Amino acid sequence: MAEPPQQPFLLIDAGAHIASVGRLAIDAAGSVLATVSDDKTLRLWNLPDGTPGLTIRPPMGPGPEGELYAVAMAPDGARVAAGGFTAPSWDGRFAVYIFDARTGRLFARLPGLAAPVQHLAYSPDGTRLAAALGGRAGIKVWDARNGRLLFEDTSFTAPVRMVAFDAQGRLASSSADGSVRIHAPDGRRIAQRTPVQGARAYGIAFSPDGALVAVGFEDRLRVEVLATADLRTVFVPDVAGLAGEGLPAVAWAHDGRGGVQLHAAGYARHNRAPAPGVAQPTRNAPPAVGSSGSSQGGRGLTVREQQPAPTPAPAPAAVAPPETRREFVIRRWGDFGHGSFTDIPASRDAISHLLPLPQGGLVYAAADPGWGRLAPDGTVATAPRPPGGDFRNTGVTLALSADGTQVRFTLRAGGAPLVFDPLTGNLSAWGGEAGFYAARTETPRIRVLDWQNSNRPRLGNVPLRLGEGEFARSLAILVREDGFLLGTDNHLRLFDAQGRLVDSVPTPGAVWGVSVAGDMGVAALGDGTIRWYRFEAGALREQAALFVHAETLRWVLWTPEGLFDHAPNGGQELVGVHLNGRRNETPEWASFQQAYRALYAPRAVRGKIAGDFAPAAERLAQLGEVRQRIGRLPSLAGGSLCAVVGSECRSIAWDARALPEGATALRMAFTATDRGLGFGPLDVLVNDRIAARAEPAVGEASVEVPLDAGTNRVATRLYASDGALFAEGPAMVLRRPGEPEAPPGAGRLVVLAIGVNEYAQADLNLRFAAPDARAVGDAMRSAGAGLFRDTDIRILPNDRATRRGVLDALAAAARDTAPADTFILYIAGHGIVAQPGNRFLFLPADVRDTSSMTVLRQQGLDDATLVAALARIRARDAFIMIDTCYAGQIDIDQLAAIGNDTGRFLLAASSSVQEALDSYDDRNGVFAYALMEGLRGRAAVDAEGRVTALALGEWVMRRVPQLAREKGHQQNAVFRAAQRDLRSFPLAVVQR
Known about the structure:
Blueprint: E1 9-12, E2 21-26, E3 32-37, E4 42-46, E5 51-56, E6 67-73, E7 79-85, H1 88-91, E8 94-100, E9 106-113, E10 117-122, E11 128-133, E12 139-143, E13 149-153, E14 160-165, E15 171-175, E16 180-183, E17 189-193, E18 201-206, E19 212-217, E20 223-227, E21 233-235, E22 242-243, E23 249-254, E24 260-265, E25 269-270, E26 328-333, E27 341-347, E28 351-356, E29 362-366, E30 370-374, E31 380-382, E32 399-401, E33 407-409, E34 418-421, E35 426-429, E36 436-438, E37 448-449, E38 458-459, E39 462-463, E40 472-477, E41 483-488, E42 491-496, E43 501-506, E44 511-517, E45 520-525, E46 529-536, E47 539-548, E48 555-558, E49 564-566, E50 575-579, E51 588-591, H2 596-599, H3 602-610, H4 614-623, H5 626-629, E52 635-645, E53 648-651, E54 665-673, E55 682-686, E56 689-694, E57 700-706, E58 712-719, E59 726-728, E60 732-734, E61 749-755, H6 769-783, E62 791-797, H7 803-816, E63 822-834, E64 839-843, H8 853-859, E65 861-862, H9 863-871, E66 877-886, H10 896-902, E67 905-912, H11 913-917, H12 926-938, E68 946-948, ...
Parallel strand pairs: 61-62, 61-63, 63-66, 66-67
Antiparallel strand pairs: 1-50, 2-3, 3-4, 4-5, 6-7, 7-8, 8-9, 10-11, 11-12, 12-13, 14-15, 15-16, 16-17, 18-19, 19-20, 20-21, 22-25, 23-24, 24-26, 26-27, 28-29, 29-30, 30-31, 32-33, 32-36, 33-34, 34-35, 37-38, 38-39, 40-41, 41-42, 42-43, 44-45, 45-46, 46-47, 47-48, 48-49, 50-51, 52-53, 52-54, ...
Helix pairs in contact: 3-4, 6-12, 9-10, 12-13
């Protein structure tokens, strides 16, 4: 009997799905959400905050093998079942996988299915598991306790789309043959009806009392509400004003106040004329073989909605990113569906599933890709957040440099184009430079017809050979016009000038864009990657792949052999190695981060793209079978766990999400299992830094780990004995009691705090600049709890704050910050107004010569350099804080120019050296002290207890002179805001 393929698979793991999310499931408490996707992952999320939990990967293979179309979670949350295009490559039949939801281990299989699994559902008591199957395989219901088949119905004439249990144990099903059926708990069919002749029934949901069944249709803008007893139509909700091909997702959900609303979604959009320049999604793009277009019966829901424009744009314009433009709506009817309706813009692409939450509201799956949540009042609490590039509408902007190495692309429709140079590892905004060449799609010699979203492309009258159900998506004619590249749903195909197929390469996503230069072709794929291919003796050879995280612009570049390079601000965790075990075994996974010492090889990666293969060959020869060693990494399991509170240690669970009041440390015990590579050190990381290290002895280890204030993100790593690879152990995110949660869609707080006490020229030394930088950073972290999704505090003290160090830190901040983030720059040290020109000059730690203004300019950082660096930081909200001194007080009004030039809030104070050496409280200077007072609530707070940038600036400007007078000094502060509309933003929450 065959087994899953044993070769390693390199896969993206961006912390979220990178392909359409098809189905959702929750536990009975509504605290855990499960999602599955065509990207071959099952992901668990904590509700309501949406933080990620486990990622579970089934056995997989090339092509569609491993794509997941269905998921169900046991009511107690202990088990999660998943299926789709699963197991036929080695079983010859399909299977449902059942995983332990707490560990991710494969628990059981339900094999022998005749078609892909479309939908799964557990009964409310957890004793039964039902499956809807593709083809004409019908439905199956198993005893969830032992896997015994209880009953099946194989009389459907088309794929069954969905199944649903009610509280009494009755099972409803919908089919593409138009029929709706109700089965009793014992398997008897008690009702059957085709509510709309010729229409394909899809979504199905029981009303909360079980008396009604709502049915949505994939090919009609229609919802039928039927009586459960006999499936007669009770009423048809109003769909006026909607456009689109169907409403395949339906759900009843309550509003937390006693009301029940009916919801429907799918392809529905508002029936209105498009805004000028806005690409309109369509649904004329059939899916790739193995998903909804599978000849074996796929999901049936077309999800690749947005199609490329017909002509490549030579110079994409940078316009406002449409990240909030959600064209696809959820219609919400009041009074069980009888009442008036509202339309909720919820996603950028088709919505495939709606699932009510016990707390009220619902969650929804979208092809964006991603999932979202509606609050009980019908507002969008969480919107889908695709992690990678979406090249469906932007693939036509793909362009190459003349040597085929540098690539220009756009991550989002309407976004600014980027340029990536793999030979230098530089990712930057495109400044309009020439020298990039987009694809030619027609020349006098080669004219390909019907290639856009068509399964019948041709060269003149010569048909071009594609696979069954395969559609063409992109085209590029070769430089010498001796052939062309055709990108399809699942292949990049090379044809000669006569239309003969020369070579084809399978791709992990649709090829939405392709371009050529010299002997290189580059493709933009549906999985969010850019991939380089070299033409060699009439064949295509993949050289490297690039994935850019759209929000943070972290990137990772890797070769097919697994050697990689990554962005200065990270990215090594975005790709990893998947290794199948046997058919009944849980696959192994290790990210590039876990194999960093073995696989990080930037010189080899860059050489391969440039055509120099020697460094890669040399490195691979040194590595041996490192990827196979991943399967022999030690494993790390959690033992006892308690939180230190005073003199006691209170036991907590490994899946806990909160700390006891007053907890200062964790005492953690582990059991390590050697699988052939031995043990190295065990590290416990708190908020991304090593907080404790232990050495496992005979497989056992214990460690006490100090905790930070606020939220603590805890991760564990156990290294193999050679230190080249590590296994990931238990991880958790622990909040403190009363710590507020960040609002939906909140960005991060990124703080760069620079403080120089110790100079290369010793007579410049100060006392409190470096402590002020640390104190302000800590105060920002604490005060921002509940406002931001995460805080990233970067302290640059003393010898790290050289001229080069400061510029590198600002460049790293530019790479790391996204538009939704808030950026704070705090600078403390020596500053002067340089003459001529009245330009502010900050003196970094490596200043060695103060003999003249000319030499100071050469060693310092002038305001023009700072402004240029700040201009690259994309954060919508930013605050610049400058706390400087020199021999004699500088004219602080000159500092206001930095705020004016950058359009940012600016807060500055300047003291004499005497004042700077004399702290306010023996710990911090006057300016830092006033800042921290304001953040803690001395500044004005709004109705929600928040301190805004405007309030903080006004407080510090008034407070600094008061504090200085108390110390017998005279010091002023300046606060300026350059925005025309003076839009402020919150920086702190005051705990009351």
